[in-house]
Design goal:
Layout: E1 10-15, E2 18-20, E3 24-30, E4 33-43, E5 53-59, E6 66-79, E7 82-88, H1 92-96, E8 98-107, H2 108-118, E9 124-126, E10 132-142, H3 143-156, E11 164-167, E12 173-176, E13 190-191, E14 196-200, E15 203-206, E16 216-219, E17 222-225, E18 228-234, E19 237-243
Length: about 240
């Protein structure tokens, strides 16, 4: 990859399947948090509605593009000369639909699959301990909270692996540990003095690239796992911050 060409990336943004003009995009991902922070900046003239599906790809001229986000519009507002669109991944049912259910002598994986089925999450990568819960109550909770409660209950039953859940750049639901399906599976980029723009405590800045939390990369030929990423693609500010 020729990094001196990487100062001017471009974005391809589709809202409800239609490509639209854009101004910029920001994305923050963190380990142990399924709540990404994603904002899309477009001209005020762009029409959009809540729940519209959004896809964002990142590219450099002469190279293949990377999908960096797939989700939906959660909110939007006008700011100066542009519209700011707040994005979420998953779907509205995962974050908003309340579930009321009671289980006895049921395996954790069956409870999780039942929960995902109720909120219409079909595309998944799941690794979950074979643990049977004596009792598990879902009391008017959204699927997001149910997943968190399943993990906490697994810990109380003696599970020693650190578990997490999240949606990846293709909106696939992941559940597991970083040793299996609880990691992002993007490209294992190698960062060194040729492409690191600045070092800081427990991290560095580089060119805009498709790196998320819980993703294996290399820094000066040593393999590391990312904890947090901050991607900024704006007209006068384009970079990726990586923390580990």
């Amino acid at each position: 990859m020729i990094y001196n060409r990487m100062l001017n990336p471009y974005l391809i943004v589709k809202i409800s399947g239609k490509e639209v003009k854009n101004i910029g995009f920001t994305l923050i991902t963190m380990k142990n948090s399924c709540n990404i922070q994603a904002k899309l900046f477009v001209p005020k003239t762009i029409k959009s509605s809540l729940k519209d599906e959004v896809e964002v790809s990142l590219g450099y001229h002469g190279q293949d593009e990377w999908k960096i986000f797939k989700g939906f519009i959660d909110n939007f507002y006008d700011d100066m000369k542009m519209k700011v669109i707040i994005l979420k991944d998953g779907n509205t049912d995962f974050w908003g639909t309340k579930i009321l259910e009671s289980y006895r002598k049921e395996k954790a994986k069956n409870i999780l699959n039942d929960c995902l089925e109720k909120c219409k999450i079909d595309d998944t990568k799941i690794t979950i301990p074979e643990v049977e819960f004596d009792r598990f109550l879902i009391c008017d909770s959204a699927s997001n909270n149910v997943c968190r409660n399943i993990i906490e209950t697994l810990y109380s039953y003696g599970t020693d692996k650190e578990l997490q859940y999240f949606f990846d750049e293709n909106n696939v639901f992941h559940f597991g540990s970083i040793e299996d399906t609880g990691k992002n599976e993007g490209e294992a980029f190698n960062f060194d003095e040729t492409n690191v723009l600045k070092y800081h405590e427990n991290g560095f800045e580089t060119f805009a690239l498709p790196v998320r939390h819980s993703q294996k990369i290399k820094l000066n030929d040593s393999e590391i796992m990312t904890l947090k990423t901050v991607l900024t693609v704006m007209p006068k500010n384009t970079k990726l911050e990586v923390y580990y």
